[in-house]
Every structure is written in structure tokens, then in C-alpha cells.
Amino acid sequence: MKKKTLIKDALAIVSCDKKDTIYRDSDILIEGGRILRIGKDLEKSPEAEGAQCIEAKGKFLYPGLINTHHHFFQTFVRNLTSIDYPNMTVPDWIGKIYQTFKRVDADVIYYSSLTAMADLVKHGCTTAFDHQYCFPRSAGKNLIDRQMEAAAQIGIRFHAGRGANTLPQNQGSNVPEEMIETTDEFLEDCQRLIDIYHDPNPYSMRQIVVAPCQPINCSKETFTESLRLARDKGVFLHTHLGEGENEMMVDRWGTRSLAWCRELGFLGPDVWFAHGWELTPAEYRVMAESGTGLSHCPAPATLGGFPIIDMKAMQKAGMRVSLGCDGSATNDGSNLLDSLRMAYLMQSYHSKQRGGAVSAYEMLKIATVEGAAMMGREDIGSIEEGKGADLFLVDARSLELAGALHDPANLLARVAVTGPVWLTMVHGRVVYAEGRLTGIEEETVAQEAERVCDRVIRNA
């Protein structure tokens, strides 16, 4: 018999469905990891017989947040003033920080992933894409395998981006030789990971994305062969684009990054890029016409003093936009609620000049149902019958929220609800509740993570 859970008497359920439904004083009945019913007094229903009850009185319930761009391995280079991102261009920063990245090993990948995932689920994130492009030769090829192990322990839905840097320094790359892979070895490992881990079925807990790091540090062959493999295997594609590399691309190839990708065929509804603050209005239309998506990462744009993207103009052009934390080296945290708030404020600041702001609720949908769609997921992202039971709850009875409870849809970004949530559930399983992760012994893992960070990063 499938496990049943009844979330009872939620003060409000913000569904983020197509009708923007908000259920008041209602219940959710969950069976086998999916939402079975939404309504009032469901405990009286025969379907609820034997269900475990979670009392949600005084709580606001939301769909789980979807993080569409991150670099978990960077968690151990947070708060390092020796690598001061705001004072450098992105290419200069890459050249410097890779000297630290080349020391990363499998233990760093495992514990930094646990750290980032813990931060994410504590702040309402239930599905995360990680762009793991750090493969030092000394670290071996089982790094994403270690991430899969970490994801299973935390209980988060995990889309693993297998990245690579394949262009040597003598051909214009700024990546150390120890970090360079050949296109063939990159694709061979992508094939291996897809065969072992990729689950395309509804309610999948793990998927693989083919994700060459970025145009300036990869060969054309890497991109064309990535495209061939991904389309053959039915998996999605991802890369960095429009984050300061265009001048170098014009010098090297005589064209901007998006045009370069378009020429290679690296566009489409199965492709999404990260950042895009260099994109032009004409390029918005190219993105829209091809169905290519963009993950907006507000923290690194703000930290680096880069242009704030015009999300409203992108949406009007027909572009698909989602939200990401980005790596901790350019964010210093893995809190997508914080990124939600930051993105909302950034867009509001420019609203008068740009003809309309993105509302706090619209930003929530970008961070939930739009993020799910970006990665090809129709089974999660909103609170609807038949969808995966991915959600989080906020205690609305706390004093700091008094006077703001009339509008639960806009509350999170508008009122800066960015701290740890009351409960996070993924596929019907409680992974975090009332300050505690349920899948790991947090203090023990934190102590071991610090030892690994000392050994590999600090002492080096």
C-alpha cells in the first residue's frame, strides 16, 4: 500500500497553477509521492483513511522552489576575500579562481554538495540543477556519482549537469591544464552517467544534463557533439552565456556567443543558458523563437556590478525565464528564497524606466512552475492534483509577519520571508522540519565537511 499523508488546515495554499488559485483553510492529501486531492475537510474522505497527518494550522503552503543554476563545488570557496569577485571581470575571475578549483577532489564534491543541498531545502527548494564543470585530473571521474549519493541522503530532486572545459590555454582558454578534458572523454562520461542515472519518467528524482561549461573555454566540437549526444539520448543541454565573454568571442570567432550557438544548432526548447545579462533585445527574439530558456541569477549580477537583465522585456518577447542561485563563489549562499527577494527588488528598481515591474508573485512563479518547465518537468512546480508532492510551509503566526497575511501570494519576496521555512517536502517525504534535516546527522556531517575544507582548500 502506498503511503498517504494529509496536510491539514493550511491557512492558505498558493498553488501557482494556471488560474493562480489560492486555497484557504484547506487540506492536501498525498499518496505515493503525488498530490491526490486538494480541498476542505479531507480527513472525512474515505481516501484519507490511514493517512499520516501533518497539522498545518496557521501555515502558508507553497510549491517547492526550483533552482535552475548552481555550482555546488564552490561552497568551500565562500567568504574568501583573496578571491574578490566584485573587483574583477568574469574572465579575470575565472583565471584566478581556477587555481583553487584545480585542487578539488571527490570528498570536496561530496561534502560541498551536501552543504549546498542542505541550505537549499532549508529554504524551500525541492529541485536543483547543478552545473558541475570542475573535473581536475587528480580527482577522477566519479564526482557526479558522489553528488547523486549526497542528493539521495538529503532527499532533493537532482538534475546533474555534467560540464567540461576542453579548450587548452594555448588556444585561448584561461583554464589550468589540470582542468582540461578532451571532448571524447567528456562525452564518454556523459554517456556513462546517462546510462546509470538518468530517469526520464514522471516524478523522477534524478536526471542528467549535458552541459559544456561555456563557449570561451570549449571547442566548437564539444558543443556540436554535446548536442548530438543529448538529442540522441533525449536529455537537456545547458551552458553559461552572455556573462562578459562576448568581446572575447568576437575577437576569436568574429561573432557574439548567441550567434555562435545558433550557428552550431545549440538552441531549442531543450536548451537553457545561465546569466544572459549581455543579451540584446534582438537576441531576446532569437531566444524566444527557438524556445531557448534563461536562468537568471541575481546574486552574481549584483555582486559583480553587472547589468540587471530586463525580465519584463524578455517575457514580452516570449522568452522563458527561471531563477538560479549560481555558485557560492559568486553568491556565498544557497538560499533561493534570498535570490527570489533579490530578483524582485532588482526588477522593481528598474520598473519605471523599463515599462513595468515583475510582481512578487510573478517572481514566485518564475522560481517554481517556470523553473520546472525550463528543465522539461510538467510533473512538478505547482500545487495541483496529480503533480509531485513538492512543497514547503511557512509559519504565518510569527510576530514579524503580523499585518501582512492578507496576501500570501506576494508575501515571500515582498515582505522578505527569506529565513528557514517550517517544513520542506519532496515527493511526499518530509526532508526538513522545524529546524532539522531528516536524512542526515547534521552536526557530524558539518564537522567532517570542515575537515575536508581544511585539508583541500584552507591549508593549501
Automatic annotation (TrEMBL):
Task: Please tell me which top-level EC class this enzyme sits in.
Answer: hydrolase
Instruction: Fetch the Gene3D superfamilies from UniProt.
Output: Metal-dependent hydrolases, Urease, subunit C, domain 1
Alphabetized CDD domains for the sequence: ATZ_TRZ_like
Q: Which InterPro entries would you find in this protein's record? A: Amidohydro-rel, Metal-dep_hydrolase_composite, Metal_Hydrolase, MTA/SAH_deaminase
Q: Say if the entry is tagged with keyword Hydrolase.
A: yes
Any one GO MF term held by the record is: hydroxydechloroatrazine ethylaminohydrolase activity
> Under which name does UniProt file this protein?
Amidohydrolase
